[in-house]
Specification:
hydrolase activity; Metallo-depent_PP-like; 5-stranded mixed beta sheet; Calcineurin-like phosphoesterase domain-containing protein; 2 domains; Purple Acid Phosphatase, chain A, domain 2; 5'-nucleotidase,  domain 2; globular; alpha/beta; 13 helices; 5'-Nucleotdase_C_sf; about 500 residues
Length: about 500
């Protein structure tokens, strides 16, 4: 948090990942919220306060503020109707939140409001089943018929721009840190707002209305920027003076932190690039048959039960990123598998019972930390193949920054305004559907099936496995397979040491 705290944000909000684990939720309440004050908006999320013995909003319910150019904004931060939180937190459904007194008071305020802002870990597309922005938008629009409402969303891991009406748009900027979403709006004047800035910032006039038949004064632009240094240098029209002193200091802090945590330590040389969904699920270059299954077969083994046949089941959503050809580092392990799911098991399950679980899981409810795996973009926040820049590198004088000329794989976005939103042109990446769960088998007798197996699975999906095994199987029968600290972050590193040692001192990287 100290590194992120050096960035000046106008508004922040909470996501579902802060709410799974009680300790993390408490940390957000006790530390993060205090740092950011009323800029940290958690309109429908509360955490249990041990001091007051009450559930209280983590941050502020809303924020009213005035920009330097005089625009008067009322903002709310709304998480989708998440239900996977621990009992340390409460997520209030949007339909209930909008009825609360504080919300009604906020939208009926006597203060002048030029713009409503909704932000949240929440899809912007109204047809998305997880979208609850629409509920809040409807409530605001019922009171403020013409006031613009701008929405900043997330959660579904896509680039998207959705038009709600002639005065309302929403943008979603990809996943993780590979996209910077840009949206701008013009039409404010001293006649309809408190705005006192330039009519045409930087000499450019926006001309595109939200809808083709719009009679409102508002015009917009939207852009999805690949998150990399060249993009930012191009758009700031600077190269020699691009790095600020604060930026250089933060870079050094990041570099030091990475060194202290040994994130650059190389464990192996990955011989291929293995993706989540750019090839079919059964393709050898898919990460599940290519890496995950052979790795768990080789590494996830209880020595005391090594003579037992075993079946290992996991949710595909636990694997979050492609694995690239080249050096496989300690950091890459977390990029690919960021969750600490403990391997649990039930010993000696009849094979005819265990063999039905995968199919039942894939037909049933998905265990969700987020949505199932989504298409992967190739423009990473930090290229995993390039080490941290040194201060010497950062101070080197650079020439003119040009746009990327070679078209590379990446996002090819279609949204409510068409296909011209991507700032850098890419060839689209194939996206094959994958199941919600995978299974691997090891220790089976040659040419036949065993009578019984050790059924191994992530603790995150334990309740679903028990449901699909049926009557006669209870949580009392489940225990840690290796030990209760061996998790989904602990099998790829030893596998890399075991299988990917060729060329480790001169490891070729992905082209």
């Amino acid at each position: 948090m100290p590194i992120f705290s050096e960035v000046e944000y106008d508004l922040l909000t909470i996501g579902n990942h802060e709410l799974y684990v009680t300790e993390v939720a408490k940390q957000m309440f006790n530390e993060y919220a205090k740092k950011w004050g009323d800029r940290y908006l958690t309109s429908n999320v509360k955490v249990y306060n041990d001091a007051t013995k009450q559930y209280e909003h983590v941050g502020a319910t809303h924020r009213y503020f005035i920009t330097k150019q005089g625009i008067r904004i009322m903002a709310f931060g709304v998480l989708f109707d998440f239900t996977g939180n621990s009992n340390a937190s409460q997520v209030i459904k949007a339909k209930d939140m909008v009825k609360e007194t504080w919300f009604q008071d906020a939208i009926h305020t006597d203060k002048p409001v030029d713009l409503f802002v909704l932000l949240g870990h929440n899809p912007v597309r109204q047809t998305d089943y997880a979208n609850t922005f629409t509920t809040v938008w409807n409530e605001i629009r019922a009171v403020h018929k013409n006031t613009p409402i701008t929405i900043f969303g997330g959660h579904s891991h896509i680039r998207d721009f959705a038009v709600y009406d002639q005065a309302s748009v929403g943008i979603e900027a990809g996943r993780y840190c590979e996209t910077l979403g840009w949206v701008s709006q013009s039409g404010f004047s001293k006649c309809n707002s408190g705005y006192h800035g330039a009519k045409k910032p930087d000499g450019k006039k926006l001309t595109r209305k939200a809808t083709d038949n719009s009679t409102a004064p508002w015009a917009y632009s939207r852009r999805y920027l690949d998150w990399n240094r060249n993009t930012f240098m191009y758009h700031t029209s600077s190269n020699k003076n691009f790095d600020s002193q604060t930026g250089l200091e933060i870079t050094q802090e990041i570099t030091t932190a990475r060194k202290d945590m040994n994130l650059g330590e190389v464990y192996g040389c990955a011989p291929e690039t293995y993706c989540i969904s750019c090839v079919p699920f059964d393709d050898p270059k898919n990460i599940f048959p290519g890496v995950i299954k052979p790795a768990v077969n080789a590494i996830v083994l209880n020595e005391a039960r090594k003579d037992k046949a075993r079946m290992i089941i996991g949710n595909t959503g636990a694997i979050r990123f492609d694995l690239y050809k080249g050096p496989f580092t300690y950091d890459d392990n977390f990029v690919v598998s960021p969750f600490r799911d403990v391997f649990r098991y039930i010993p000696d399950v009849p094979f005819d019972k265990a063999s039905q679980v995968l199919a039942k899981l894939n037909k049933g409810t998905v265990a969700k930390r987020e949505f199932a795996s989504m298409p992967i973009a190739r423009d990473d926040c930090v290229d995993p193949l390039i080490g941290a820049l040194t201060l010497r590198d950062m101070h080197q004088e650079r020439g003119i920054v040009r746009r990327q000329e070679t078209i590379t794989p990446g996002y090819a976005t279609t949204d409510d305004w068409g296909t011209d939103g991507d700032d850098t042109e890419h060839t689209g990446i194939p996206n094959y559907s994958i199941p919600s769960y995978w299974e691997s088998r090891a220790g089976f007798p040659t040419g036949s099936d065993p009578e019984k197996v050790d059924l191994i699975f992530f603790d995150f999906i334990e309740k679903y496995v028990l449901q699909d095994l049926g009557s006669g199987f209870t949580s009392d029968m489940v225990s840690c397979y290796i030990n209760c600290t061996f998790t989904s972050q602990d099998f790829m590193l030893p596998y890399a040491k075991l299988m990917w040692q060729d060329n480790i001192d001169n490891c070729p990287i992905s082209a």
